[in-house]
Specification:
Rossmann fold, Alpha-Beta Plaits, 4-stranded antiparallel sheet, cell membrane, ATP hydrolysis activity, transport, translocase, ABC_transporter-like_ATP-bd
C-alpha cells in the first residue's frame, strides 16, 4: 500500500455511507492538506454530516478508502480521536455545571494532568472570550456563547484537525462574526479546519478550498473565487416583478444576460455589468417592483450546478 504523505490530513477515495438501502454518501474523493480550511457546502441532506461523522471516526465507512492523519479509522479510532477536535452541529454541553467545569471535565476525559488542564482551560476561555463567564452556569449563556464554549471544548486536546459541522447555524449575524474571527485565528495558528455549511458567505469567508455536495456526491471543487469565476458571471441583477409575472418577464429579458434563472419570487440575470443590464430592462418598458445588483456568490454556483438553492 502506498504511504500517505505527512501533509495529508484527510484522504478519501470512493468514500460511501449507507443506512440500510439509503446511500447518504455515494463515492466521494477528498484530500485535505495540513493548514487548509476546507469546506463542504450543500443543502441539508447532501451527505455533509454523514461524511463528517466518518472523518471523526465515530461512524463506520460503508465503502471506499478513508485515512485520517495517515491512519485507518476502522482500526485506529482512539488514536485518531486523540488528535482531532470535533465541534458537532448540536451543542452537547452539560448545562447543569459551570463554563469552567465543562472544559475541565472534558480535558480530564483526554487524560491530561490536572495542572495542565487548568492552564489549558484558562487559555481557551480567553481565546473564546468567555473568561468573565467562567463561573456562570451553561444554561444561562446566549446561543453564541454556547457555540464558543463548544469550540473551546473541541480544542482542549490541541487538535491538529478541527471538524466543525454547521458551526454558526442559529446564531445572529454578530455572534457568527465572533465565531468566524476565532476560527480564522485558529487557522493562522496552523490548525487544519474542516467545516460543513449551507451558508455560502461562511464558506467564502473561511475556506481556502471547498467541495460542493448535492445528494451524496461532489458536483464541484475549488477555491470560492475559482468556482464563481468558472460557473457564474461577475455580477447578478435580481429583478422582482408582481406576483405571477416573473415567468413571463423572463422571456422578455433573456437576451440581455448570459443566463436567466426564474425563482419563485424573483428573476436572476447573470451578466458582466448588472447596472447596465437593469438599465436595458427599463429601456424595454419593464418595471420591476424591486431591483438589486450584486456580485456572484457560491449560492449562484450551486444553483447553476444543481438547479436549486442551498436553502430549500
Amino acid at each position: 500500500m502506498s504511504t500517505v504523505d505527512a501533509d495529508s490530513m484527510i484522504h478519501a477515495a470512493g468514500l460511501r455511507k449507507s443506512f440500510g438501502s439509503f446511500e447518504a454518501v455515494r463515492g466521494i474523493d477528498v484530500d485535505v492538506r495540513r493548514g487548509e480550511a476546507f469546506g463542504f457546502l450543500g443543502p441539508n441532506g447532501a451527505g455533509k454530516s454523514s461524511t463528517m461523522r466518518m472523518v471523526a471516526a465515530v461512524s463506520p465507512v460503508s465503502g471506499g478508502t478513508l485515512r485520517i492523519l495517515g491512519m485507518d479509522p476502522a482500526t485506529d479510532g482512539p488514536q485518531i480521536r486523540a488528535r482531532i477536535g470535533v465541534c458537532p452541529q448540536e451543542d452537547t454541553l452539560d448545562t447543569e455545571i459551570t463554563v469552567r467545569e465543562n472544559l475541565y471535565i472534558y480535558g480530564r476525559y483526554f487524560g491530561l494532568p490536572r495542572k495542565e488542564v487548568r492552564e489549558r482551560v484558562d487559555e481557551l476561555l480567553e481565546f473564546v472570550q468567555l473568561t468573565e463567564k467562567a463561573g456562570a452556569m451553561v444554561e444561562d449563556l446566549s446561543g453564541g456563547m454556547k457555540r464558543r464554549l463548544t469550540i473551546a471544548r473541541s480544542l482542549i486536546n490541541r487538535p491538529e484537525v478541527l471538524l466543525l459541522d454547521e458551526p454558526t447555524t442559529g446564531l445572529d449575524p454578530q455572534a457568527r462574526h465572533v465565531v468566524w474571527d476565532r476560527l480564522f485565528r485558529l487557522r493562522q495558528q496552523g490548525v487544519t479546519l474542516v467545516l460543513t455549511s449551507h451558508y455560502m458567505d461562511e464558506v467564502e469567508q473561511l475556506c481556502s478550498r471547498l467541495v460542493v455536495m448535492d445528494k451524496g456526491v461532489i458536483v464541484a471543487e475549488g477555491s470560492p473565487l475559482g468556482l464563481i469565476a468558472e460557473h457564474s458571471t461577475r455580477e447578478v441583477a435580481e429583478l422582482r416583478f408582481a406576483v405571477g409575472e416573473n415567468e413571463s418577464a423572463a422571456g422578455k429579458v433573456e437576451d440581455l444576460a448570459d443566463r436567466v434563472e426564474v425563482l419563485p419570487d424573483r428573476l436572476l440575470l447573470y451578466t458582466a455589468d448588472g447596472e447596465e443590464t437593469v438599465a436595458k430592462v427599463h429601456e424595454r418598458g419593464l418595471e420591476p417592483v424591486a431591483t438589486l445588483v450584486r456580485r456572484s456568490t457560491l449560492e449562484d454556483v450551486f444553483l447553476r450546478l444543481t438547479g436549486r438553492t442551498l436553502v430549500d
